[in-house]
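[step 3/7] inverse_fold.run input=structure_tokens len=603
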């Protein structure tokens, strides 16, 4: 029998999601599961599920993806989810496709905010848990402490008593092994495969008719829109007449033209699919959205769809109107920016886009700074030129009181930096929840902090801890407004002229603060070229040239030593800027500028 087209009994199917905090080893584990099951043959693969360029560069999962592996007589559908809470929309929509989950926890780092966030979402859906304490091969691994933290976390978050009973395995994604007893080494992931088969229940039909819930979207130039989702009830065949159902709306009937199942990295064309299968479908006559149920024509049975958490942060995205507009990008107009943002809404379920009073600006709302930053970086790489405002949090009125989003922050620092970090967080209205000292000279502190307080925090934190601190956070909820927070304590060095930056000018200016530019760069009036060492903004002339006199010493300009500029990435700029400033983003450059370019008008 051809393995790629093999039809499995429903009792032999398992659907499982892999969840964890960022960088705890999910994607590496999927590589090993694909290889050791024999699904992927040939040369070893590395982070094969991180197909997006940004995912590979940053080493994080941004988009949830699914694959399938054959193991003995079983077929296991695996969903790889993001670990960062900014991409929680991806986690929430894909967890609906499975009956169980595998929670990975780093044996050295232990339970972090992302761990709590993804576990909370999984337990809310009553999924069956398996725990793998990963990276036990690390020198600083503390398996006993990590296991205790996991048990405490389950006690805190479990919705039912049976969620407190789960198998715990120990292993290493990198080395490709897992064991049920840490004193008994293993050389493969067989114990993990067995735990999945024995713990995760097989799929059961929810209704008598067809229910195919769409949880992801793709597009093909030949096939048009492609919907990816889980068959919860019934079966579907190529040529069937079906309708789209969402809430009370039902579409006109259309015919299924193609069906695909997932095996390894490939989509395998098939003639039919049954309840429990995760499949891709084509043939749509009208746009389909995430959360839609595909049902048999004449028998609409919309499946319930989990509510996605609301956005907590917003930025204004507008047409680039700087003096350098149109020099580096191809996509410049408000219509092009609007179309791209609305295209993103079709697949990015946690995003919102609102029109503003200006036809050239749009309010984009997302889960956090990273969520918004990834969208803007993607647009930049596609050839867009645009301007982005400083991020601002989204307030709510609850029981008549103004409330703001709160993050749960965990910091791990050397004891010598404990006081400095506590003072820094105190200024940002953070409330300490717990603190624990470890034998290795480090201390772990947990805080509840307003989302506003984390804007600009990362750079200050790394400076105060000399780069040795670790900080992670996730959305915690809304609480009453905490009062004013001092954001950036230093002003900006703003160019008062346009032209090319000279060595001579920067030699003087580098004493005034930290520079973001280098000699030879082009600037315009109102462009920010550095951070002032004082709290106020300072207008400077970075294009000033040395006057030619007969007293000039030959070769003296060659002796000027200019410090390397601070590299301002998109995320760094989003943390740094103030409400009266903008980030100018083009395919080649990221610049900072004042909203009002002329110094006389700013005053």
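[step 3/7] decode complete -> sequence:
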């Amino acid at each position: 029998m051809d393995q790629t087209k093999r039809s499995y009994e429903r009792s032999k199917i398992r659907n499982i999601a892999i969840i964890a905090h960022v960088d705890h080893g999910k994607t590496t584990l999927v590589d090993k599961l694909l290889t050791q099951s024999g699904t992927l043959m040939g040369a070893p693969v590395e982070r094969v599920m991180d197909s997006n360029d940004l995912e590979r560069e940053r080493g994080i999962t941004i988009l949830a993806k699914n694959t399938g592996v054959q193991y003995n007589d079983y077929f296991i559908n695996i969903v790889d989810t993001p670990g960062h809470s900014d991409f929680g929309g991806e986690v929430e929509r894909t967890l609906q496709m499975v009956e169980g989950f595998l929670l990975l926890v780093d044996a050295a780092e232990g339970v972090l905010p992302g761990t709590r966030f993804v576990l909370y979402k999984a337990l809310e859906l009553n999924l069956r848990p398996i725990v793998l304490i990963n990276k036990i091969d690390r020198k600083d691994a503390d398996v006993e402490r990590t296991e205790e933290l996991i048990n405490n976390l389950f006690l805190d978050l479990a919705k039912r008593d049976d969620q407190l009973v789960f198998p715990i395995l120990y292993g290493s994604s990198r080395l490709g092994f897992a064991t049920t007893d840490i004193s008994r080494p293993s050389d493969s992931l067989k114990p993990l495969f067995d735990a999945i088969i024995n713990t995760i229940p097989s799929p059961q039909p929810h209704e008598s008719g067809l229910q195919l819930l769409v949880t992801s979207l793709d597009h093909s130039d030949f096939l048009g829109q492609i919907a990816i989702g889980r068959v919860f009830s019934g079966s579907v065949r190529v040529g069937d007449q079906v309708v789209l159902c969402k809430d009370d709306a039902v579409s006109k009937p259309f015919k299924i033209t193609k069906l695909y199942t997932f095996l390894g990295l490939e989509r395998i064309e098939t003639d039919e699919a049954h309840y429990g299968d995760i499949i891709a479908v084509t043939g749509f006559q009208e746009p389909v959205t995430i959360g839609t149920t595909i049902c048999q024509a004449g028998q609409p049975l919309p499946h319930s769809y989990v509510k996605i958490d609301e956005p907590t942060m917003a930025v204004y995205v507008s047409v680039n109107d700087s003096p350098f507009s149109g020099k580096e990008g191809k996509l410049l107009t408000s219509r092009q920016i609007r179309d791209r943002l609305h295209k993103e809404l079709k697949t990015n379920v946690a995003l919102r886009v609102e029109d503003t009073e200006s036809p050239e600006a749009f309010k984009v709302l997302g889960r956090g700074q990273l969520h918004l930053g990834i969208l803007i970086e993607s647009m930049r790489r596609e050839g867009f030129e645009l301007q982005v405002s400083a991020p601002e949090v989204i307030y709510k009125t609850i029981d008549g009181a103004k409330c703001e989003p709160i993050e749960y922050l965990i910091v791990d620092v050397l004891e010598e930096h404990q006081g400095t970090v506590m003072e820094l967080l105190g200024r940002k209205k953070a409330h300490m929840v717990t603190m624990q000292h470890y034998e290795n000279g480090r201390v772990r502190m947990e805080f509840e902090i307003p989302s506003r307080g984390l804007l600009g925090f990362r750079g200050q934190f790394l400076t105060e801890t000399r780069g040795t601190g670790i900080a992670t956070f996730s959305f915690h909820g809304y609480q009453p407004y905490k009062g004013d927070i001092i954001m950036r304590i230093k002003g900006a060095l703003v160019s008062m002229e346009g032209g090319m930056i000279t060595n001579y000018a920067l030699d003087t200016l580098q004493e005034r603060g930290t520079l973001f530019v280098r000699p030879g760069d082009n600037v315009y009036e109102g462009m920010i070229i550095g951070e002032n060492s004082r709290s106020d903004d300072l207008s400077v002339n970075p294009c000033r040239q040395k006057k030619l006199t007969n007293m000039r010493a030959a070769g003296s300009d060659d002796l000027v030593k200019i410090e390397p500029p601070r590299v301002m990435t998109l995320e760094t700029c989003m943390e740094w800027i103030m409400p009266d400033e903008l980030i100018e983003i083009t395919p080649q450059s990221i610049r900072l500028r004042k909203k009002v370019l002329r110094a006389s008008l700013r005053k």
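[step 4/7] annotate
The longest strand covers residues 401-414.
Confidence is low (pLDDT under 50) at residues 1-6, 47-52, 54-62.
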